[in-house]
Amino acid sequence: MAWFAMTIGGFAAAGFVMAVISGALVDRLGSFKILPFYLLPMAAGLALVSAFDAPAVALALMVLLGMSNGTAVAVFGSLWPELYGTRHLGAIRSALVAMLVLMSAATPPLMGVLIDGGITVSQISAGFSAYILLTIALIVTGASFYKKDMSAAVSHPRPSAAK
Q1: How many C-beta neighbours within 10 Å does residue 128 have?
Q2: Domain extent at residue 76
Q3: How many CB atoms lie within 10 A of CB 20?
Q4: Tens-digit pLDDT profile for residues 94-128
Q5: Whether the Cβ atoms of residue 126 and residue 46 lie closer than 8 Å to each other
Q6: What is the CA radius of gyration of the chain?
Q7: What's the domain count of the chain?
Q8: CA–CA gap between residue 146 and residue 163 (Å, rounded)
Q9: In angstroms, rounded to a whole number, what is the distance separating the alpha carbons of residues 130 and 29?
Q10: What is the pLDDT of residues 140-151, one digit of tens each?
């Protein structure tokens, strides 16, 4: 129980530190530039779980998850207004939170099915780590298309609507 409590403390401490650091980086660079990197600690933590079976890995995993979580707090607080403006911010955030809740609810049954199917926690962790790396690649690809689209909009602005 004491070891588990320490991992929760590691998660909280890492999340706090990364929220502060990421907030400053978002102010300096913008959330869009930080977005592709916020999942890297999570992928690293899951890769550790897939490769090693030791109590210290639990602490490392929780610290790395806390780093991703703390960064997400800073990035997603400003990403949506940065990308879409503030007019429909409530609708955008509520749709995303609903998806987050749905995925959080779907994960335990999925894990149960995988474990019941004979897939080890190590294999599941490796698969999730690979999935996260694929997600990062998709974010980077999508960001490059977004930047091209924004460059075209800036160099060829649309005529403004009459007010």
Answers
A1: 19
A2: 2-153
A3: 12
A4: 998 999 999 999 999 999 999 999 999 999 999 99
A5: yes
A6: 19
A7: 1
A8: 28
A9: 27
A10: 888 777 766 655
